[in-house]
Design a protein that fits this description.
Layout (H helix, E strand, L loop, with lengths): L14 E6 L2 E7 L17 H9 L3 E2 L6 H14 L2
Antiparallel strand pairs: 1-2, 2-3
Amino acid sequence: MGRVTASMAAEPIMLLFCQYKDVLTYMLLWSRRKTEFVFSLHKSYNEDVKQVLLSQPNTIEAHKHQKGKTRKGIKKLIMLNK
């Protein structure tokens, strides 16, 4: 599983939840800061989800990461955007 980085950097950080074929994925819009975010996939990772993520412009691919760090990271992002 490789990381996918967006080439555009004009959008603010936004957390998106995408339910696709029973797989919950976290997608983040690229921010002005050139930072790469890593989030976890729930249930299973499959090629269909990978294709959906790759087809979304201006998003970063979500992939497996440590659960505790992921949850804290998501909470921080939600707090930053309120």
